[in-house]
Amino acid sequence: MTIFDENLILETINMIKLHNFDIRTVTLALSLRDCASENINTVCDKIKYKLDKYASNLVKYAQEIENDYSIPIVNKRISVTPISVIGESCKEKDYLKIAKTLDNSAKNLGIDFIGGYSALVEKGCTQGDKYLIESIPEALASTDRMCSSVNVATSKAGINMDAVLKMAEIIKKSAELTAEKDGIGAAKLVVFCNSVGDNPFMAGAYCGYGEPECALNIGVSGPGVVRAAIQDLDPNADLGLLSNKIKQTAYKITGCGELVGRRLADRLNIPFGVIDLSLAPTPAVGDSVAQIFQVMGLEHAGAHGTTAALAMLNDAVKKGGIMASSYVGGLSGAFIPVSEDAGMIEAASIGCLTFDKLEAMTCVCSVGLDMIAIPGDTPDSTIAGMIADEMAIGMINKKTTAVRIIPAPNKKVGDKIIYGGLLGEAPIISVNKFSSENFVKRGGRIPAPIHSLNN
User: Fold this and answer.
1) Are both 289 and 430 inside the same structural domain?
2) 145-174 pLDDT per residue, tens
3) Which of 141, 152, 223, 225 fits a 20 to 30 Å CA distance from 455?
4) Total-model pTM
5) SS3 of the chain
6) Which residue range(s) make up the domain with 380?
7) Which domain CATH number covers 310?
């Protein structure tokens, strides 16, 4: 039985009032494998029934937990089995009908986002995978709360370059079909290497094949808390002391997060899954990973030394979390989404944070190229090159990497996209003008690295 230190919990509650600590998401992961049928209407009916059965009280109980502990729970979400698998059983491959069923159920349940409109195609596509991928742009344009992800690479399988090129096309179409909303369709779509099935964060959350029937995964975030803790140190404290302070802070907020997650899981009468301790920023002042770099001593995110600072931050967060809980999972570490981080937005706007520097930072962060706005006329082949680079970083380093790029329709460098809320806003940044076309159009599969043969 987990023992929680009440003094640490009380100290953490003070962090809520001053430094934007919150439970970023509670995500109910739900298997839909028993919803398969040859009849598309039967599939949709089964999905609706199962979501109602398990998630009808998610929002209500989460709000009660918020009141009980005075800890904000920002988002209530659901992740489901990759829909490419569920829809493949149908004679009529109407994936859009499934997408709208998921979205309508989420609305009726009061859920903020539902993830799992997904496919895992690192070694190739089945017919179901192909149908789902082709449907993604229209599905995202015709829904409000649904999110999509496609895994195109793993450290074991290599990189499916045919899927990489296809996803570049899908990203462009998703943005174009939502041009009146600054291409928000692309903001709800992520391409992965080494995706994980217990990730509670959108847009990449889905219920993995090895997960139970139902579980509650929780995502905790507190970049403002970490920034404040570092500020409390002697300004001349060395980096070892600084790392220890981050670990101690991560320990505290992990314990608080697990307490909330377990209480909510008990109330829902489902298993507790994992706690994902990710420093996920928001556009709110003080709730920024980039501002952590500044209190560490860098003038701005993107200055030389940023990658080293991020590596230390990511490692310290994981070490502190793993000491606090035996159930740390998901992605866990530090996210660097440009549009969702006030400090990142500022650094990108003044030219300190460039695309190439962001790519370098993904070698050591928790995910990858995240919420980066680029000119809408960027060629598909260039976007495919970006995806391929990021997949290679994940494949070689045995880590999860992802691409959530927004080719903003009718926008050019110097313009900005504006979404509001957690998605924030971002300046359009420049990309390399030289062509990747002849490389990415070779297709096939980039083989897995030699260290994949480790059985």
Assistant:
1) yes
2) 999 999 999 999 999 999 999 999 999 999
3) 152
4) 0.92
5) CCCCCHHHHHHHHHHHHHHCCEEEEEEEEECCHHHCCCCHHHHHHHHHHHHHHHHCCHHHHHHHHHHHHCCCEEEEEEEECCHHHHHCCCCCCCHHHHHHHHHHHHHHHCCCEEEEEEEECCCCCCHHHHHHHHHHHHHHHCCCCEEEEEEEEECCCEEEHHHHHHHHHHHHHHHHCCHHHCCHHHHCEEEEECCCCCCCCCCCCCCCCCCCCEEEEEEEECHHHHHHHHHCCCCCCCHHHHHHHHHHHHHHHHHHHHHHHHHHHHHHCCCEEEEEEEECCCCCCCCCHHHHHHHHCCCCCCCCCHHHHHHHHHHHHHHHHHHHCCCECCCCEECCECCCCHHHHHHHHCCCCCHHHHHHHCCCCCCCEEEEEEECCCCHHHHHHHHHHHHHHHHHHCCCEEEEEEEECCCCECEEEEEEHHHEEEECCCCCCCCCHHHHCCCCEECCCHHHCCC
6) 218-449
7) 3.20.70.20
